[in-house]
Fold:
Amino acid sequence: MNSPRQKISVFEHQTITYGKSYFGVKFKESHFNALAKLNELHDNKYFTLVHKGVKFSSYVGVIQIGDLILEVLPKIDRSEESPVLWKDVLIEMLRTTRKLKVNNIGNAFVAKQHIHLLDIYFEWFLNEVQALIHQGLIKKYYKQTSNVKALKGKLEFANHIQKNLVHKERFYTTHQIYGTNHLEHQILGLALKIIAQFSNGTYLYSKCKTVQLDFPEVDLVKPHPGLFSKLVYNRKNKAYKTALEIARIIILNFAPSVSSGNEKMLALLFDMNDLWEEYVLIKLKSLKIEGLKVIGQSSKRFWHNVSIRPDIIIQKNDEVFVIDTKWKHIQSNKPSTHDLRQMFVYNRYWGSYRALLLYPSNRTEKPSFMPFEEEQQECAVGKINIIENDSLKSNLGFDIINWLTK
Structure:
């Protein structure tokens, strides 16, 4: 019988050590060893190993090690340490940036205890696969190598001699079959198998088994990135795109080789720096203001093969503004010399009048733009409150535009 899942919630940049209990759940040495191996596989970017523990970085999300759920949540500073609030903030950011599809976040999961990001992704995937089954799964031509009773396709001579020395009536061939055992379904089948392992003992397990019963039998494939490079979308399989994208997230974050004993691991982690930049960009792009154009990921050649790229470029009529987002708590309004030099260069190369270093905060502080010495271009630090009425502030784009254009 499977033991119930236990959960530990931590915040980014927090340190936990094995042998101690958090929220009544013990963090074991086996959990530490599994995290250390996972971190090594990903070039030590997720956290830093310390004496008997790990210190988390700006990566947030969820890690499941056996029956332990480890939630890593974002947080601006120590003024508010509510795991429920910051989990809602993270989910809303993922939903806004289209990394997660959740409707009615406040109500849809209220009745489900111990819900976490993996459960949400699992349920999203299962719903997508159910929809595909209901509308009818596609069939495709694919190659199959096996023993058959009639000669068709290409005879694999060496294997034919080896396998059919006694059975003269059989032929070992590679031939085409029209059916459901093709790459798209093999990928979805692998994701279903992973979900069944990690949802055992939860409300999603029975739903997963029901979907598996309705799903056709397919060949088992090994999880590796090359699986997805072979996918080509067309009119026939375009309905599969969402399900396959979720399957990619699940499969490529599944680490069967990272284990302690028999504990397998699934990690779903996001860099808050990238998520914050994307969230601000989307909120600015959603503004319906005449003459406003918002551009992300714009780069220019700086020197030789070196390019520079500010996070966000804003064009308002004939004026240009530059924004660089920073997901961290800044104690004062004085940015680093490196950041100021960077903003100076951005102003020069994009012909910008104002550059803004944008930080999240628990209270809004309107920026005071000051010119660079002997220059007309200005720069400032802006702190914007991202929490409003115990949820993620949705209209911060208006504040940012008003800062820059007034």
About this structure: The two ends are 64 Å apart (CA to CA). The chain has three domains: 6-136+183-272, 140-179, 287-405. The longest strand covers residues 140-148. The CA atoms of residues 281 and 312 lie 7 Å apart.
